[in-house]
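Quick note —
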Amino acid sequence: MNWKFLKKYLSFEFEKYGYKSHVQLPTFHDGWLYFGIRNNENISHIARIKNDKFETFLSPNFDFDKKGIMPSCFCEDAFFYTGFVDHKGNNNYYTQNICVLIEGSRYCVLTAEQDESFLVNSAFVMNDNSIYKMWYVSGYDWVGKKPLYRINYAESKNKINWEIVKKDVVPKLDSFESPSRPFVLKIEEKYEMYFSSMHLNSKNNYKLQYAESNDALNWRREKISIATEDDMLCYPFILNRNFMFINGSNYGEKTIILYERE
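Predicted structure written out below.
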């Protein structure tokens, strides 16, 4: 699986719109590019841009997302996102929920307590043969102040009520690999998953990873080739199967990069 660099897609003028940094977790829908953007208090909101039009799309508002929000994906009329909530206990650890916006109403659809973990985030959802399938990130441990992630799988009939079917569905290279933000394509009867991962015993830089499955539950890691001058590649989004939008250095602090499948 090979991808070639096309261009730096977006370098954002933050001060022009009253924000501080980041164009994080690129997500396309109906011609709009959505991303997480941080204000001067370092709280993430969700903004979107189309041609030359920019607007803030969603801001923290409820108990389940009051400390910040970041985009995950669209599925039909539903927009899934990650909601940050208060730190727990007398430490700097944080927790997150998986949330959804449907017809103007927000719901918290999966919590860390339900997952029996410390946090959940970055849901990818598709309607597959009338079953809503979700692959999401579960933070089940900490290495210092860095969360140790795995990818779990859940199903739903209505996009709001979810049943966790299987945990740790993508094999990890070792116990210190921490995968993030899955993006899944179904091509004929095969599933492709793109995600990024970092090794918590190294420089903590995300690299692009790839896996395949025949049943959406059991995944096998495959090689992927992608060149970059950035010190990390993270949070991939695939558009029309052949174009990848992905964040670069410092978790997408300034730019989104565009690649094309070879």
